[in-house]
Amino acid sequence: MSKTVLKIEGLKKSFKAGFIPKKTEILKGISFEVSAGSVTGFLGANGAGKTTTLKCVLELIFADEGKITFFDGQRLCSDVRRRIGFLPERPYFYSYLTGREFLRFYGELSGVLSGSKLNSRIDQMLERVKLTHAADKYLKNYSKGMLQRVGVAQVLIHRPEFIILDEPMAGLDPDGRMEVSKIIQETSKEGTSVFFSSHLLHDAEKLCDRLVILKEGNVCYDDKVDKLLNQVSHASTIFYKKGNGMYELRIEDPKDLQSEIDKLRAEKSDILEIKKEHLSLEEAFVNMAF
Questions:
Q1: Residue 257: its pLDDT value, please?
Q2: Rg of the chain's alpha carbons, rounded to an integer?
Q3: 44 by DSSP, 3-state: which?
Q4: Residues 169 and 126 reside in one and the same domain
């Protein structure tokens, strides 16, 4: 089994725009890896370079410099493509197809499944994304949430080892986000590696093992979610009882924690609980200077 499903080394990409074309560097030599079996979030503000990176990875556009490999060193080729699923930020849905026809089209296009095996897989995926009731309805009659769910089904139809999702939660209501989040979690538990970009920090915190964060075309963070949160928040709160009163004491610096505990004990206070403060990923972004 591959240890690394995606490896990017020194990726650079520039574009020219304007009446008098001016070169703008979007990616400035980024490098990171996506490990097998992980759910990795790809975060950054608008214009940071997330979508440009994904397009380079899938050769929808070509990088100026750098190396991109899959599954422990393989270049993108037809065999590698069969092992990958991709959902773009703005997927195109053929409005004249039904949900079932849409999945059959992409299932046959993958070259992995056909005949009765494909039919069985289509039924399985429609049930999984809760669209069995709409299987024979035209996509033009699907809601935004239904389209996103059938898009995720399309990504998974050929049982890929690695899926790439560009803003899979964008534009969904809370129920839609919950459904797509559940599918991502289930897919990961089955052993599929997941790499997705998002602006929604709450979803990234809930789903991801690791984060890769871009800022102005550079990787400014590449590590576990918990490590980022711990870097930002070190505060703890001591809950204690003194006499007939119940109190709490917030300690900002972890170096002071033990001395404060000793003081409370010297004052005959009973330590009831020591709780380490946990910031959300959104709070970490606000408080941390990358």
A1: 81
A2: 24
A3: coil
A4: yes
The whole-number pLDDT of residue 10 equals: 96
Name the residue range of residue 260's domain. Answer: 233-287
CATH code, domain carrying 67: 3.40.50.300
Mean pLDDT for all residues in the chain: 87
The whole-number pLDDT of residue 56 equals 95
Q: What share of the chain is helix, strand, coil (3-state, %, to 5)?
A: 35, 30, 30
Please check whether residues 149 and 47 belong to one and the same domain. yes
Question: Residues in the chain, how many?
Answer: 290
Q: Is 69 exposed, middle or buried (0-12, 13-18, 19+ CB in 10 A)?
A: middle
Name residues whose C-beta falls within 8 Å of residue 187's C-beta, 6 or more positions apart in sequence.
Answer: 156, 163, 194
End-to-end alpha carbon distance in the chain: 34
Q: Are residues 97 and 214 in the same domain?
A: yes
Report d(CA 153, CA 179) in Å as an integer. 12
Report which residue type is found at 253. Answer: D
pLDDT at 233: 61
Distance, in Å, from the CA atom of 13 to the CA atom of 138, rounded to the nearest integer, reads 39
| % of the chain exceeding 70 in pLDDT | 92
**DSSP letter (8 states) at residue 141:** G
Q: How many domains does the chain have?
A: 2
| Burial readout 188-220 (b: 16 or more C-beta within 10 A, e: otherwise) | beeebbbbbbbebbebbbbbbebbbbbeebebb
Is there a single domain that holds both residue 128 and residue 260? no
Average pLDDT over residues 220-246: 81
pLDDT number for residue 199:
75
Position 197: which residue type? S
Mean pLDDT, residues 61-84 taken together: 93
Note whether 69 and 198 are same-domain residues: yes
* pLDDT given for residue 251 in this prediction: 81
